[in-house]
Write a structure and sequence with these properties.
The protein is an alpha/beta fold. Helices cover about 40% and strands about 15% of the residues.
Length: about 250
Amino acid sequence: MKFGIKLWSINHDLYEEAVKIIRERKADYLELLYVPGEKEKLKILKKNKTPIIIHTPTLSQGVCFSDNNFKKKNKIMKETLNVAEYLNASKIIIHPSIGTSENFIRFLKDYQDKRFVIENMPKLGIKNTQCIGDSPTEIRKFLSQGPFGFCLDFSHAIKAAISHKIDYKDYLKEFMQLNPVMFHLSDGRLSTEIDEHLNLGKGNFDLRFIKGLIKENEQIFKKSKEVTFEVPKENGLKNDIKNIEFFKAIK
């Protein structure tokens, strides 16, 4: 496995720390969520040849790639692609979000980029909105539109399973059949369908089961997969490293 830390492009005060952590091999790459217009200090990452995965803006930044405002989202995607090119990003993660499958498919058809990685969603999004892309069937449909990869967000999938009132471990196994190229990981509670990003060990997800799924996938495809830790920021990036070490220790 390759382990990644996540920052937003507004967190440029943590870039130097991220570079140091990766240089010291405490993490393998940086996943950077691009906030529209926020490009300060990207040169630090480029200069140090930091391995980068770009995450496109999301609904939290007022961006939805599945609505019908094609002019706005094409503008935002052009900005995001420019940042990805500048940083030589290996992947570009995108959320289906809360619009319609038809709009998202139309958007994907305009961007036949093999770096695109589609992330699954919870059923219930921010402000109780209904998301698309919360099922293996729908993600498979999106993946069929081009040369795209799949990012399995374990928390999103588990929360979707709770919403659908089905066994979350069976649901994760269904998603694994789509051969994810990477993963997002955080802990959460099985008592709520609301998406959470808890520190590992602070929820009740079966992390040993999840680690087993990743290892099995790597063995089948004979390739290390990237795992980004989506956990709270505490003491700079020290909490991220604490979570990575926690996961490494799971047997």
